[in-house]
Design brief:
Structural class: alpha/beta
Helix content: 40-55%
Number of strands: 14
Strand order of the largest sheet: 2-1-3-4-5
Shape: globular
Strand content: 5-15%
Distance between the termini: 39 Å
C-alpha cells in the first residue's frame, strides 16, 4: 500500500482528501501546519506528498525542500489556487512532480498521484539510486550511450560540442530510433541552460484540436472541458530548452501560432488576452527533410528558416560499422544488471549477425532486442538461438527499408524457390510498401486500399519492422 501525506491548513480539505484516497487504496496521513508536517516527514516515509502551496507561516517551496532533504525519491504535488499558478510552475522547476489547481477534481487527483508513484518506482526516473545506477542514469541523460568510436560518431560529438554553448535553434535529422532526443538532451546538458527544464514534446501525439493548448496553455473556459487554467509546454520550459520531436507532424494551423512564439518569444494562452514573455531554446527533430515537406505545402517555409540556425544529421545504425558491437555490449551490460545476471558478451555468430543486420529501428530496436536476449540467456555468452527469428534468419529473408521516407528502390532478397512461406511474406511486404508509397505513407488510406483495418495494418508494419 502506498503512503500519501496530505498537507493543508484547511481541515475540511484534509478530511475530504483522506476519505477519497483511503477509499482508493492508499494509506493517508494529514498535517494541518508547518510543524506538524515537518514532524511527520521526519518520522515517516512517503511515496507522494500532496501539499497546499500557501500554509500560513510557510509555503510549498519550504515543504518541497524538507521532503527532498529527507528522501529525494518522494514525489511532491502542489495544490494551488488560480492566482498561484506561476509560482507553482517555479516550484516544479525546483523539483516538484506537478501541481493541481483548485477546485480539485477526483479523477485528476487520482491520475496525478498514480503518475507520481510510477515515477518514484521507475529506477530510470528515481534520483534516489545507488551510485552505480546514478552513473548509468547520467550516461543515458547525457546521451553517452549514442557515443561511439566510428568517424560518424565522432563527427556528431564534435557538432554537439560546437553548438551546445550557443542559443542557436537546432534541427536534428535522423531515422526513427537513432537517438534524436538523446542528442537534444546532450545539447541542453552542455549549455548554459542545463540547470533549467528540458521539456520534450512528441508532436506526433498532438491532435489538431489540442495542440495549441498543450504547447501554449489555455485559460479556464477557453473551450469545452477547459475546467481550469493550464500551463503549456513552452511556459513550463521557461529558461530552459523545448525539444519538439517529429516536428513535421505538427498541425499546419499550430505551425502558424508557433511561428510567432519563435520570432518574438511571446505566447498567449488559448482563450487568453495577456501576452507572456518566455526565454527558451528550441530544438526540433524530424525523420523527413523539412525543405521537401515545405515544397509539398506540409510545412511552413518561414518556420523552417527560423529553426534552421544549425542542423545535425544522425547516421543510421547500419552505417556506423565499429559502433554496432560497442552499442550491443553497452545495452547488454545494462540489461544484465537490471536482471541480476552474469552475461559475458556475444558469441561470434551473434556478432556476425548484428554486423550484417540492417537495424531498421536503429538504437531503439537494438536495445529492445538486447533486453530480450538477456532475458533468454542464463549465463555465459548470448547464443544465436536467443535472437528473434527475423534477425537470426535475416540472410534468408531481408529487407532494404526506406525508413527515412526517401524515394528509394525497396528491395527484398529473393527467397528460396521451395520456401512458400517466404515467398508469400515477400509478396505481402512488397505490396504494403508500394501501397504506402502511393498514399504518401498515410496509414488510414493504406489500410483502406489493402481492404484491412488499421489494427491489422499496424500488426503487419510491426511484423516487417516498418514502424
Amino acid at each position: 500500500m502506498h503512503n500519501i501525506l496530505v498537507i493543508d491548513d484547511d481541515i475540511d480539505m484534509c478530511h475530504l482528501l483522506d476519505r477519497f484516497l483511503t477509499k482508493n487504496g492508499f494509506s493517508v496521513q494529514a498535517a494541518y501546519s508547518r510543524d506538524n508536517a515537518f514532524s511527520l516527514i521526519e518520522k515517516n516515509n512517503y511515496d507522494v506528498v500532496l501539499s497546499d502551496f500557501r500554509l500560513g507561516n510557510t509555503d510549498g517551496r519550504e515543504i518541497l525542500q524538507k521532503v527532498k532533504e529527507k528522501d529525494p525519491s518522494t514525489q511532491v504535488i502542489i495544490i494551488t489556487g488560480y492566482s498561484d499558478v506561476k509560482v507553482a510552475v517555479d516550484v516544479i522547476k525546483q523539483g516538484a512532480f506537478d501541481y493541481i489547481t483548485k477546485p480539485l477534481l477526483p479523477d485528476e487527483i487520482l491520475l496525478l498521484i498514480n503518475k507520481a508513484i510510477a515515477k518514484k518506482e521507475n529506477w530510470e526516473d528515481n534520483p534516489d539510486l545507488t551510485e552505480s545506477r546514478k552513473k548509468k542514469k547520467k550516461e543515458l541523460i547525457d546521451g553517452n550511450f549514442i557515443k561511439g568510436v566510428s568517424p560518424e560518431a565522432k563527427e556528431i560529438e564534435k557538432q554537439i560540442a560546437l553548438v551546445a554553448p550557443t542559443n542557436y535553434s537546432v534541427i536534428i535529422y535522423g531515422e526513427s530510433g537513432t537517438g534524436k532526443e538523446s542528442v537534444a538532451q546532450a545539447i541542453h546538458n552542455n549549455s548554459q541552460r542545463r540547470s533549467m527544464p528540458f521539456v520534450s514534446v512528441d508532436c506526433g501525439a498532438l491532435t489538431k484540436e489540442l495542440a495549441g493548448s498543450e504547447l501554449f496553455g489555455h485559460e479556464k473556459g477557453a473551450f469545452t472541458g477547459a475546467l481550469n487554467q493550464k500551463i503549456g509546454h513552452f511556459e513550463m520550459a521557461n529558461g530552459g530548452t523545448v525539444f519538439l520531436d517529429e516536428i513535421s507532424n505538427l498541425p499546419y494551423d499550430t505551425q502558424i501560432a508557433l511561428l510567432r512564439v519563435v520570432q518574438e518569444r511571446k505566447l498567449r494562452h488559448v482563450g487568453g488576452t495577456r501576452e507572456i514573455d518566455i526565454d527558451i531554446r528550441i530544438i526540433v527533430a524530424s525523420n523527413e527533410k523539412l525543405t521537401e515537406m515545405s515544397s509539398r505545402g506540409k510545412f511552413r517555409e518561414d518556420l523552417y528558416h527560423r529553426f534552421n540556425e544549425f542542423s545535425i544529421h544522425l547516421y543510421p545504425l547500419r552505417e556506423r560499422g565499429k559502433d554496432i558491437e560497442l552499442f550491443a555490449n553497452h545495452f547488454l551490460k545494462l540489461a544484465a544488471n537490471d536482471l541480476g545476471k552474469e552475461i559475458h558478451g556475444f558469441s561470434p555468430e551473434v556478432v556476425d549477425v548484428f554486423r550484417n543486420y540492417r537495424w531498421p529501428g536503429n538504437l531503439r530496436e537494438m536495445y529492445n532486442v538486447i533486453k530480450r536476449v538477456a532475458l533468454l540467456t542464463d549465463g555465459g555468452e548470448v547464443q544465436l538461438n536467443s535472437l528473434p527469428h527475423e534477425i537470426s534468419f535475416h540472410e534468408k529473408f531481408s529487407f532494404n527499408l526506406d525508413a527515412a521516407g526517401e524515394d528509394q528502390q525497396n528491395t527484398v532478397d529473393r527467397p528460396p524457390k521451395n520456401d512458400l512461406k517466404s515467398i508469400a511474406l515477400s509478396a505481402e511486404y512488397k505490396t504494403i510498401v508500394e501501397v504506402l508509397k502511393q498514399v504518401n505513407y498515410n496509414k488510414s488510406k493504406a489500410a483502406k486500399a489493402l481492404d484491412i483495418d488499421r489494427k491489422t495494418l499496424y500488426n503487419k508494419l510491426k511484423q516487417y519492422q516498418l514502424l
